[in-house]
């Protein structure tokens, strides 16, 4: 029976990756499809390729944070953070100097469950927040509310990035869109439309690469604790899972991001996607799991605000914001209760 648990862990990681692809496909291609530049199926093909590349080439930064940077499960790390020896209680809780297999399974399934619910509701939520909530929740299930077992500084960095990321991309998109508008004044609109169309597809590829670099770590980061020497293969697994999710069930949330927040033209799609890609890639290199959903929605809002507050659907934005708050909280609470 022992071989069943590793198989269950890999399937759970694939399930989370599928969820990320289904929900976050919108972040990569929602504005491209919303602006009617290319078809959904072609856009998903581009996304699949670059998500896998991003995960394999640069996904290891966030994988380490999610897998080992939230709950302190290694005795040497515990001693370094707390300036005291790891006692008998620590070794009983983490006998193998890592998260227990059941904790990894509960964290993955908790995150996947709430992202699935959001995807069926067509709400773009933060899969980063879901998996961080799931891992933190299992940590609470294992050790209770003992702060000495958590890397609080890392958690504060992650929470801060969740606030900064959408504000940053909103500001960049606002500036990019206004700058594009000035550049296009008095120019041949037919020629510029072709150039912008190509640029939008390129920016979709860049967002997809950034998504792979950041969210592959969210999908299979917890598995790194179980399989520390299989990082590249886990990254490939996460990328394929995300591509599968986008192909099979990504269209619902894509419509929300691409069409329901604010009307999108070529310049708007380019500004929103480029600002989101730059923001997410920056945090990926820092090893901080941020939300591509928040980044892209922030970019779309920034584009809408150039036309005035009335151009943005406040009702849709409110629904999205509620999802961003509820997802990590529910995933953490559910994981803590199930593991306990």
Overall spatial form: elongated
Percent helix range: over 70%
Q: Mind describing the biggest β-sheet?
A: none
**N-to-C CA distance:** 22 Å
Helix and strand composition category: mainly alpha
Number of strands: 0
Query: Treating each run of at least 4 consecutive H or I residues as one helix, how many helices?
Result: 14
Descriptive terms for the model:
single chain, 340 residues, mainly alpha
Short description:
This protein is mostly helical. Helices cover 79% and strands 0% of the residues.
Break the fold down into its secondary structure elements and pairings:
Blueprint: H1 4-34, H2 40-58, H3 60-68, H4 75-82, H5 88-93, H6 101-120, H7 127-143, H8 152-184, H9 189-226, H10 231-249, H11 251-260, H12 266-285, H13 292-305, H14 314-339
Helix pairs in contact: 1-2, 1-6, 1-9, 1-10, 1-11, 1-12, 1-13, 2-9, 2-10, 3-9, 6-7, 6-9, 6-14, 7-9, 7-14, 8-12, 8-13, 9-10, 9-12, 12-13
Describe this structure in words.
The chain has 340 residues and is mainly α. Helices cover 79% and strands 0% of the residues. It contains 14 helices and no strands.
């Amino acid at each position: 029976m022992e071989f069943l648990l590793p198989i269950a862990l890999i399937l759970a990681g694939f399930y989370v990756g599928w969820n990320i692809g289904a929900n976050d496909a919108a972040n990569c291609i929602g504005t491209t499809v919303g602006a009617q530049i290319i078809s959904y199926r072609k856009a998903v093909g581009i996304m699949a390729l670059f998500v896998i590349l991003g995960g394999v080439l640069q996904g290891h930064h966030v994988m380490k944070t999610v897998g080992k940077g939230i709950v302190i499960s290694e005795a040497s790390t515990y001693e370094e953070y707390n300036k005291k020896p790891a006692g008998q209680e620590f070794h009983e809780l983490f006998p193998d100097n890592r998260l227990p297999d059941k904790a990894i399974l509960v964290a993955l399934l908790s995150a996947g469950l709430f992202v699935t619910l959001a995807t069926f509701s067509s709400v773009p939520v933060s899969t980063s927040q879901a998996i961080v909530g799931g891992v933190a929740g299992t940590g609470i299930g294992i050790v209770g509310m003992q702060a000495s077992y958590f890397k609080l500084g890392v958690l504060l960095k992650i929470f801060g990035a969740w606030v900064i990321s959408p504000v940053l991309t909103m500001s960049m998109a606002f500036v990019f869109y206004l700058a594009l508008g000035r550049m296009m004044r008095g120019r041949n609109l037919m020629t510029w439309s072709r150039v912008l169309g190509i640029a939008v597809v390129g920016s979709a590829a860049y967002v997809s690469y950034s998504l792979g670099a950041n969210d592959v770590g969210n999908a299979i980061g917890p598995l790194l604790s179980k399989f520390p020497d299989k990082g590249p293969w886990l990254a490939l697994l996460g990328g394929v899972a995300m591509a599968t999710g986008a192909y099979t069930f990504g269209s619902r949330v894509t419509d929300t991001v691409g069409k329901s927040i604010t009307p999108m033209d070529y310049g708007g799609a380019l500004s929103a996607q480029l600002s989101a890609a730059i923001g997410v890639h920056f945090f990926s290199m820092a090893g901080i799991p941020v939300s591509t959903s928040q980044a892209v929605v922030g970019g779309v809002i920034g584009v809408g605000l150039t036309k005035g507050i009335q151009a943005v659907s406040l009702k849709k934005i409110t629904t999205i914001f509620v999802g961003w708050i509820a997802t990590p909280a529910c995933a953490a609470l559910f994981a803590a209760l199930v593991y306990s």
